[in-house]
Amino acid sequence: xxxxxxTLLLLPVVLFxxxxxxxxxxxxxxxxxxxxxxxxxxxxxxxxxxxxxxxEYQYGxxxxxxxxxxxxxxxxxLVQSEKVHIIAYDNAEQQRIVRLLxxxxxxxxxxxxxxxxxxxxxxxxxxxxxxxxxxxQLFIQDWGFNGWGNKAAYNNCNAIxxxxxxxxxxxxxxxxTAMINEGGSVEIDGNGVLMACKSSIxxxxxxxxMTQQQAExxxxxxxxxxxxxxxxxxxxxxxxxxxxxGFARFANSSTIITMNSNDLAYWQVPDGDIDxxxxxxxxxxxxxxxxxxxxxxxxxxxxxxxxxxxASYINYYIANNRVLVPNYNDPNDAVANQMIQQLYxxxxxxxxxxxxxFANGGMVHCVTQQQPK
Length: 373
Hints:
Elements: E1 23-24, E2 37-38, E3 46-52, H1 61-65, H2 68-78, E4 83-88, H3 91-103, E5 111-115, H4 123-126, E6 129-133, E7 138-144, H5 147-150, H6 155-158, H7 160-168, E8 172-180, E9 186-188, E10 193-197, H8 212-223, E11 227-231, E12 249-252, E13 255-258, H9 261-266, H10 271-278, E14 289-292, E15 317-318, E16 322-327, H11 332-343, E17 348-353, H12 355-359, E18 369-372
């Protein structure tokens, strides 16, 4: 993602101590060179989707009100696909959200609420990462989250995976001391390959002193990946230091969905990274197929009149029978939706208006998190 809006809050890193029943890993753990857990790819069957609903308590009522419609639209589609686990700040927020959904005619039969304070709504980055062991048992991984390198408030959001694990009785793997890692930083192809930008992982504001070899060992053990496509990325460009999921994703185990070189350059992806991306190969050295989705034709203007530049369609979300694609009231919405529909013929592609969300720097994938069956 490419988060442009930010209120700078330089806060100390908060690391949660291991509680009874937690499994704690550290970079020094000698067995990190073996696969212990595997993260199912996004297109694997879901039990549900997690959303953190926007609220007024961090950035104000206007901020919240400009975003509600996007969350209502996502929920309306997702309840027809799977369970929707909505994290509301408190009971008053839950009641407000219920009113919004009722007004929009959204059935609450598939909606489940959890009341947890949050700093913001980027659940992809701070939320639980679900993995399975070799016996198929489900675990929640609680990776460290420090507000994209101490750039925003994060104490509430960093606690979310631990709270979900406790409430749902799913065993937790505590990785807070192992690595700061946001979900939007990594893409996996479902066949043992991980794609990421070094700028958002091997960065002194996340993991000072960590080597690429150490990071790979941690990812191998905890996500089940054995091959790595590392792009350099560009630190300091945006709050995330260039997350991969804004411009390159695995559509499936053999296909990378991205943009053409001119659009990647507009996204400020370094030239060397564009070459590395286009020459990437899979686990056995096989070439990936590439689907290149254009950026918006025009610069995006929010519902309140702010010009936020051209936007990406790559940051979509794959649900059980839906694919939620960011749309921007742009002529290329239809082009992107059709191209993505061809990749998922058994699912319904639905455009989600992300004009106001993109003004805060993210799109659909950034604000969703899957829970596998």
